[in-house]
Design goal:
The N and C termini lie far apart (75 Å). α2 runs antiparallel to α3 and α7 crosses α9. 58% of the residues lie in helices and 0% in strands.
Length: 300
């Protein structure tokens, strides 16, 4: 007889996560924002999913994930908190512990769990944890051969590049960054930099670096950035924003059509889609052109 293994998800299957979250939310805010509590839960969960993989693959720290999901999630519903407060809120949720968390979940529909489920003499673990662990400990699997550590994809990147990589994960964050830069709101920029890089980045230094991004690259990238910037800004001035949007989204057909008629590209044999993709799309130039078209001023 073949053994069967059953996998099941605990979250929102055995228990509803919203109850304990809302309890922690109300305790943290002292009853304020009650009308936004349910929306806040949904927003925080959504923001958490956005950076879950990055956090669990080591691209960002767990603290950065918690700050991002609470700070940006609450900001989505009009509640502003600091990075430190985001960590305090997360700590408040974590302090509930497994027994308190499960009790709170069960209590949502009036269920009172027996105490023996949490405290038993059969194990040092609580009864519930012992149950979930299983009465028998499976035989330890042979150790897999040690794998060489994965290289950090951000190891050789400038801090501003890492910052933009994180911002580009979400269109809402891009728009928020644009608004922050147009207002030159240093406090909000500082929060974003702390969430994404855990560094204190300066908005003016960031704009100076991004405005001269190609100067730190090779000749091919410099030429591509200059030509495409000129072409995209010209198209925007002509009111052809649909073409600009298609080009920035990486539409090959639109680029192929453009290179046959754009004065910036028509006499450049090297201007293939692969050239454009490598030297422009895969760099930080698309977000820079979006910022310029939305009124962000770069220093001379």
């Amino acid at each position: 007889m073949k053994e069967k293994t059953v996998f099941f998800d605990l979250d929102d299957t055995l228990y509803d996560r919203s109850g304990p979250y809302l309890a922690a939310f109300r305790q943290f805010f002292g009853g304020r924002y009650e009308d936004k509590a349910a929306q806040a839960y949904q927003a925080v969960m959504h923001r958490g999913y956005e950076v879950f993989t990055a956090a669990h693959t080591g691209k960002i720290s767990m603290d950065a994930m918690h700050i991002y999901r609470h700070q940006i999630g609450l900001l989505d519903v009009g509640i502003r908190i600091t990075a430190a407060q985001a960590l305090q809120l997360q700590a408040g949720i974590a302090e509930m512990g497994i027994p308190a968390f499960v009790r709170a979940c069960a209590a949502q529909d009036g269920t009172v769990l027996p105490e023996e489920l949490f405290v038993t003499e059969s194990s040092d673990l609580g009864g519930l944890q012992f149950f979930l662990q299983g009465a028998e400990t499976p035989e330890a699997a042979p150790e897999a051969p040690a794998q060489p550590p994965e290289s950090d994809p951000d190891a050789n990147k400038h801090a501003f590049e890492v910052f933009l990589d994180c911002i580009a994960m979400d269109d809402g964050l891009v728009q928020y960054l644009i608004d922050v830069l147009k207002r030159m709101d240093r406090a909000e920029f500082f929060k974003l930099s702390q969430i994404t890089t855990k560094l204190d980045l300066d908005p003016e230094e960031f704009l100076y670096w991004l405005g001269r991004r190609e100067l730190y690259a090779g000749e091919e990238e410099q030429a591509c950035a200059a030509m495409m910037d000129h072409a995209l800004l010209r198209l925007a001035e002509e009111g052809r924003l649909d073409v600009v949007a298609a080009l920035l989204s990486g539409d090959r057909k639109t680029f192929e059509a453009l290179r046959c008629e754009a004065p910036e590209l028509v006499h450049v044999p090297a201007a293939t889609f692969e050239w454009y993709e490598k030297n422009y799309l895969d760099r930080d130039y698309p977000i820079r052109i979006i910022m310029r078209l939305n009124g962000v001023q770069f220093p001379d």
